[in-house]
């Protein structure tokens, strides 16, 4: 594939994606290529990625240093830099801020729709952070790096608390304010959040049937399936306990990770033993409590969601096809890391 292959981008999305990954930066960096090339590239980009596409490779910012920053502050007399070469600012370039701020499309004239819309997007971003951190914590546990995993879980818990706090804003939507735009949501529902589903899977709630909602969206379905089939952070914690001598049954360690987790008395006893023999100086004790912190925070997210929903729509059905609060109440009964909860009864 060569730069001049821009001629064929309109015919095949995969060919376009390969070309974009290789040469896309040349079309963004302001070093304008041939105008005909640019026209063909942007036409194909609009066709395959839509107007507000997410750039696969945002511009390179270069690498700075303390010395360079000190020299610049000297040169500006301590005032901010106001002149930038090219058609962007480094701030826009770093986090694609212009793309991010072009993604708000309320569907109704109701002023209350914008807070709902933006808070929904913020929550998706935070779900993504929670998911990525869970994957990282899982690999730290696989590598026996317990203090690093515990540190990661402490941060993760704070992110989940932020998600819980965000209900405060949505709780200010009066039923009438929500109803002013609700009909414009069609069948869209938070239930279809694939990032939330991936978080549930990474935490160990492998409700495989719920992945079905994403079957028609190949790039999403791939990610959801990967999260479904991978071991959860809890599976990783149990394997770690086993490596440290706990009597975890083979059937728990070598299970089908995509199947619903069946709680086990032996695992419950193993966690009880962690609490009996350990204390705050013990790695597995700290791990147990850090996991509980996350499980409790996600449980709180679920329960504040339920309360907020009840406050806004009462007993009305949801947009996603369920009876609403009755369905959410049942989802609230589930506990992540179940034996960590039940082992309390043995202590
Ligand atoms: C403020 C108005 C909201 C109402 C009235 C509401 C209502 C509901 C209802 C009734 C359900 C059950 C599925 C259905 O039939 O739709 C549900 C599920 C869900 N909602 Fe909300 N919701 C609201 C806001 C949000 C927001 C802002 C988020 C976060 C992005 C969210 C995330 C979810 C998730 C992840 C589920 C699936 C829960 C699970 O699988 O256990 N909801 N919601
Ligand atoms: N299930 C909600 C609607 C809902 O949660 C929703 C709808 C569209 C886009 C996002 C939503 N929720 C999360 O942001 C309802 O029954 O009104």
UniProtKB/TrEMBL annotation:
Cofactor: record remark: Binds 1 heme group per subunit.
InterPro entries, alphabetized: Trp/Indoleamine_2_3_dOase-like (IPR037217), Trp_2_3_dOase (IPR004981)
Binding site for heme: 305
Keyword Lyase among UniProt keywords: no
GO MF entry, a single one: metal ion binding
Pfam families xref list: Trp_dioxygenase (PF03301)
Reactions catalysed according to its record: L-tryptophan + O2 = N-formyl-L-kynurenine
Single GO biological process annotation from the record: L-tryptophan catabolic process to kynurenine
Subunit details: Homotetramer.
Protein's name according to its UniProt entry: Tryptophan 2,3-dioxygenase
Source species of the chain: Streptomyces inhibens
């Amino acid at each position: 594939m060569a730069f001049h292959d821009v001629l064929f981008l309109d015919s095949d999305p995969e060919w376009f994606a390969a070309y974009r990954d290789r040469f896309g930066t040349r079309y963004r960096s302001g070093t304008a290529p041939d105008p005909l090339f640019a026209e063909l590239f942007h036409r194909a980009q609009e066709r395959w990625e839509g107007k507000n596409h997410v750039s696969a490779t945002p511009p390179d910012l270069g690498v700075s240093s303390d010395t360079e920053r000190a020299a610049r502050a000297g040169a500006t007399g301590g005032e901010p830099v106001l002149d930038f070469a090219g058609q962007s600012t480094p701030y826009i370039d770093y986090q694609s801020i212009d793309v991010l701020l072009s993604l708000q499309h309320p569907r109704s004239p109701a002023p209350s729709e914008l807070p709902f819309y933006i808070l929904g997007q913020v929550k998706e971003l935070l779900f993504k952070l929670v998911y990525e951190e869970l994957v990282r914590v899982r690999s730290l546990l696989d590598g026996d790096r317990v203090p690093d995993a515990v540190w990661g879980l402490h941060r993760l818990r704070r992110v989940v608390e932020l998600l819980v706090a965000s209900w405060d804003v949505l709780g200010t939507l009066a039923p009438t304010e929500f109803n002013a735009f609700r009909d414009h949501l069609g069948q869209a529902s938070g239930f279809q959040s694939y990032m939330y589903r991936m978080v549930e899977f990474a935490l160990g709630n492998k409700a495989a049937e719920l992945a079905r909602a994403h079957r028609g969206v190949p790039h999403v379905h791939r990610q959801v399936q990967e999260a479904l089939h991978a071991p959860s952070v809890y599976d990783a914690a149990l394997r770690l306990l086993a490596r440290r001598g706990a009597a975890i049954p083979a059937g728990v360690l070598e299970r089908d990770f995509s199947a619903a987790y069946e709680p086990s008395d032996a695992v419950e006893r193993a966690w009880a033993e962690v609490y009996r023999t350990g204390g705050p100086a013990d790695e597995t004790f700290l791990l147990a409590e850090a996991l509980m912190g996350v499980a409790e925070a996600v449980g709180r997210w679920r329960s504040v969601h339920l309360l907020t929903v009840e406050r806004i729509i009462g007993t009305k059905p949801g947009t996603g096809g369920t009876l609403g609060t009755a369905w959410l109440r049942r989802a609230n009964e589930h506990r992540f890391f179940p034996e960590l909860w039940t082992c309390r009864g043995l202590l």
